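Slide 14.
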Amino acid sequence: MGLGRILVVDDEAEIRRSVRLILTKAGYDVVDAEDGEKGIAAIRSGT
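Slide 15: predicted structure.
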């Protein structure tokens, strides 16, 4: 496990990819979602 897990929620796929890359390189585990509902579902499922 990295430094921690971060959830990134944005409707722009390119923004999510860019933020994921930066945070992953910084040592974080990243989960991303395209909207709030999917973000909440990701939190609830523990992914």
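Speaker note: The chain is about 50% helix and 20% strand.
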